């Protein structure tokens, strides 16, 4: 469910600190990359693929980085408790990571009704894995 909240910036900060503390965080081993193919050649769906999306002319998928992969990412994901208002979470955490580490991120969202609804896969440059993990620890600790 997408929530609508009217609150001050301070209230948003406090609410989202509670959301990140309550969310189920998973960190993924290894390095991950995006791969591409024309619309006429979609990827085979396998257990290794975490996300598959498309635009007007290409498929794009997120999978373990192989030796010839381009940009490499560290991945983590959040599943949120169904009763919590997590509106604004993506922008809030992306801003915190940019402010603290100087990096942008990517986010791919999905839906799993059995695990609280919307969930997020997050990627940051693989070389910032340890630093991003530390920021997440600090934010989750309150």
From TrEMBL:
Pfam families: DUF6196 (PF19696)
InterPro entries the UniProt entry points to: DUF6196
This protein's name: Uncharacterized protein
């Amino acid at each position: 469910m997408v929530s609508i909240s009217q609150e001050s910036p301070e209230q948003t900060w406090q609410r989202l600190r509670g959301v990140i503390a309550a969310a189920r965080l998973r960190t993924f081993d290894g390095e991950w990359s995006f791969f591409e193919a024309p619309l006429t050649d979609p990827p085979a769906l396998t257990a290794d693929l975490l996300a598959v999306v498309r635009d007007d002319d290409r498929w794009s998928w997120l999978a373990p980085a192989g030796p010839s992969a381009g940009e490499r990412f560290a991945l983590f994901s959040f599943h949120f408790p169904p009763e919590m208002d997590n509106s604004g979470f993506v922008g809030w955490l992306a801003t915190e990571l940019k402010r603290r580490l100087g990096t942008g991120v990517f986010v791919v969202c999905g839906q799993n009704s059995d695990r609280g609804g919307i969930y997020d896969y997050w990627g940051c440059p693989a070389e910032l894995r340890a630093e991003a993990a530390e920021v997440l620890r600090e934010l989750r600790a309150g």
